[in-house]
Amino acid sequence: MNNMKIGVPKEVQEVAKSLVEAGFEAYLVGGCVRDMMLGRDPKDWDIATNATPDEVQKIFPESVYENDFGTVGVKTESEDPKLKVIEVTTYRIEGRYSDKRHPDEVRFAKTIEEDLSRRDFTVNAMAMNVKGELIDPYGGENDARDQVIRTVGAPEARFSEDALRLMRAARFSVELGFEMQLETRRAIEKLSGELEAIAKERVRDELVKIVMTPDAARGILLLEELALLQYVLPELREGIGVGQNLHHIYTVFEHNVKALDYSARQNYSLVVRMASLLHDVGKPRVKVGDGPHSTFYQHEYVGARVAAKALDRLRFSKEFIEEVVHLVRSHMFYYNVGEVSAHGVRRFLARVGPETVDDLLKVREADRIGSGVKKAVPYKLRHLLFMIEKVKNDPLSPKMLRVNGGDVMSLLNIQPGPRVGWILSALLEEVLEDPSRNTREYLADRVEALGKLDDKALKEISDKARETKSEFAEEAEEEIKKKFRVQ
Known about the structure:
By secondary structure, this protein is an alpha+beta fold. The chain has 4 domains: 10-142, Beta Polymerase, domain 2, CATH 3.30.460.10; 147-232, Hydrophobic Seed Protein (Orthogonal Bundle); 253-392, Hypothetical protein af1432, CATH 1.10.3210; 398-463, no CATH class. Helix content is 50%, strand content 7%. The radius of gyration is 29 Å and the shape is elongated. Residues 465-484 have low confidence and may be disordered.
């Protein structure tokens, strides 16, 4: 491999060799050539050929062809997921993009040079044959060496073909750590509004790729510099120039981006990264006053609604939206050593969900670092972790009670209705207060007693929460304290 820092897997070599032995051309193309040149592990391996899809399928009977772009999926016996299917695409030329999203037609081409001419950026417009010879008609090798993102041909013409390339330029800049050629950058700024014509799902996918890079914060800032962020997450821009109070040294926008930066550098999940980026997105809409004593009351609830609307517009899944929104809504939880009891921690876990706590604490870390403090996990959070460990096996939801709704109806001989839920809520409060009460005998007696109350009294009891401390085995508690370095 001439000048290549990473070798070509044998599965890819075998597919290319089979095409050549059958009398056709075979070139590695696009991102895999670029990544090999940069010493990066390619995410996928693509081969371009002058063989038609029908001819490729004759060579590889086990292949799959289910698209209109001349791409045949050739199955291999590799155990590596990236190599199980090698995509082989017939050289092609794309017609006009009248809708700025899709080519009006796709025609097969005769040469690799024609195929490369339709690609977006020079570093993606290189090809390499089985002998390791590089085909580089647009100077991609030099641009890769100089770490520059530049379009193939005139920037405005290339971006007008498919406006998603406006975001792709920013994404490649962040993924590769490259700078953008000035002419390419100016064209993006000029044509940024054309991004509105792009399907939200495609915009979402590019945003996700940016957010999932280690340098995600630079990606968001670059989208803003290129006038693209207004067409991706306009809600985030509301925080630009919005000062905060004495607890913050950054504007709302800067703070949100710095929170994302921390999450990305900790390699947290997409859910945590997106929640970190959006956790204070509601602040500009609720700000009262100015200067060090301004307030942002209820910003977490407003922010949750704003985040939900933004993510829905970008066609994120319902499950993903619910997870992010829950973290945004819950990120302002209060915890102070000596003020919150084990009962209070159980209530906290019951409210946010045990399965969410780890992510919520990560968002809290990002919030702290994004505020300019040095410690992501101060003593307060370590103490909360200690308390969570202490109570994690205690009943936290009605599902963990030793009696259920069916038992309540049976014991009281009643039909389904709100009284069943009120009784279960009242029982859970008692068990949160003292987990030792979670026995069938105790709870059955309490069901009988609660069932004698009228609706008003029962509902009042079910809504109350008295916080008391629970006793734990002293030896076990000391061990947990050592684990989290608390006293």
